[in-house]
Amino acid sequence: MIATQDLVHRFGETRALDGVNLSVPGGQFVVLTGPNGSGKTTLVRHFNGLLAPDEGQVLVDDVPVADDLVAARTRVGMVFQNPRDSFVAATVGADVAFGPENLGFSRDEIDRRVDLALSAVGMADRRDDRIGALSGGERQRVAIAGALAMEPNHLVLDEPFTGLDARARESVVAHLERLSDTGTGVVVVTHDLRDAWSLADRVVALSDGRVAVDGSPTEVEAELADLGVRVP
Q1: Model-wide pTM > 0.85
Q2: I need a surface site. Which of 24, 80, 93, 228 has the fewest CB within 10 A?
Q3: Are 160 and 82 spatial neighbours (Cβ–Cβ below 8 Å)?
Q4: pLDDT (tens digit, 9 = 90+) per residue, 169-194?
Q5: Mind listing the domains of the chain with CATH numbers?
């Protein structure tokens, strides 16, 4: 479980997050939405310690993130809006192996994790391909595989569909559905609900750094419209 308790984050005099209390159970598919500037990306960057709270705290599996950053970043995998920001190696296999290597696993364990992660995103035969030669959708899938190789309890994706064509979007959605079906918790940050709406167990919307809407897709449709979030 990921839990935030009275979470406050400031940028200068502005409260980007203003007392956010939120719990995300393991295995749940959550869509996090809201208007631009509502605090979505700021919130999820606290989930594995990429940002530190000014007030309050974040816990992952009941352990404060600040007490064990390695555990938090192992249990919560993060995929950024632009996957190019997260690549550290020239080839698909080397990039996906980077996280497990940093944790000091044996070569056999690293290879096992890389093979499973690439199979999960349909790229088992692309291990030696150069990342620079991949399409946008393929890069997004490699970024997801890199997070999966850490074998996280939760996978958090920040605007994963931005810049993808229809075919690539469909591919990413299909792989997220498979991951959710096998028990991985998924949090998708997006202002465009078309792709993730049908997969969501729960929709959470922020407004001015606070949780404004929280419920199942059918429960929150009218409230989302009031926030200016377009429902499919």
Answers
A1: yes
A2: 228
A3: no
A4: 787 788 888 888 888 899 999 988 88
A5: 2-226 (3.40.50.300)
